[in-house]
């Protein structure tokens, strides 16, 4: 599928009243060689190479969690779009690096994405303990993808702003009640 669109980054979010924070919404768009949308395509995001990342066992309707393959998937709509907003968290360790999530459409590799996580400790939703981890990533001399929410390749002020907006909106106030892995 030569003309597909994939995100450079995916941000795993927390929940509010069981609903994933919309700040984490992203989509993969599948198109034919003629640049026409392709519907009913199985789009899979593989987290197999994403150390330190956990996905919520329950996701929104239409998104399937595959524990054995450490992946999530859904089907494209009439516009060729597969829409995701994934709840999940980090394990508290720096975790996955650049472009560690792999994206497939009907088994064909489309690209990779860096995985960020607003809930950096995986406990109690987005809170002050997460801010401490974000600050450590901000001041780290090495790149930490879990805190690069703007996909810039660095952890900077924009990432702090994105995290703060999520914290103050309370839309990521809860961690998933259970993790798939």
Please, could you describe this protein's structure?
The protein is an alpha+beta fold and 181 residues long. The protein has one domain. Helix content is 14%, strand content 28%. The chain has two helices and twelve strands; from the N terminus they run ββββββββββββαα. The strands form four sheets. A six-stranded mixed beta sheet has the order 1-12-11-5-8-7, with no helix packed on it. It has a two-stranded antiparallel ribbon with strand order 2-3. A two-stranded antiparallel sheet has the order 4-9. The longest helix has 13 residues. The radius of gyration is 16 Å and the shape is globular.
Topology:
Elements: E1 9-12, E2 15-16, E3 19-20, E4 26-29, E5 42-46, E6 53-55, E7 64-66, E8 71-75, E9 81-84, E10 88-90, E11 101-105, E12 108-117, H1 128-139, H2 157-169
Parallel strand pairs: 1-12
Antiparallel strand pairs: 2-3, 4-9, 5-8, 5-11, 6-10, 7-8, 11-12
Shape: globular
Helices and strands, in order, run as EEEEEEEEEEEEHH
Main sheet: strand order: 1-12-11-5-8-7
What class, by secondary structure content? Answer: alpha+beta
Number of strands: 12
Q: What count of structural domains?
A: 1
| Range of strand content | 25-35%
């Amino acid at each position: 599928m030569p003309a597909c669109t994939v995100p450079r980054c995916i941000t795993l979010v927390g929940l509010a009243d069981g609903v994933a924070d919309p700040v984490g919404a992203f989509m993969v768009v599948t198109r034919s060689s003629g640049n026409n949308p392709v519907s009913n395509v199985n789009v899979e995001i593989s987290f197999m190479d994403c150390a330190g990342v956990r996905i919520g066992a329950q996701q929104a309707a239409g998104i399937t969690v595959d524990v054995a393959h450490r992946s999530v998937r859904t089907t494209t709509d009439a516009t060729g779009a597969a829409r995701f907003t994934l709840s999940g968290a980090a394990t508290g360790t720096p975790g996955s690096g650049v472009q560690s999530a792999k994206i497939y459409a009907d088994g064909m590799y489309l690209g990779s994405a860096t995985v960020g996580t607003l809930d950096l400790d995986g406990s109690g939703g987005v809170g002050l303990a997460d801010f401490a981890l974000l600050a450590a990533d901000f001041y780290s001399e090495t790149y930490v993808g879990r805190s690069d929410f703007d996909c810039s390749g660095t952890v900077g002020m924009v990432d702090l702003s994105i995290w703060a907006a999520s914290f103050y909106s309370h839309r990521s106030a809860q961690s998933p009640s259970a993790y798939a892995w």
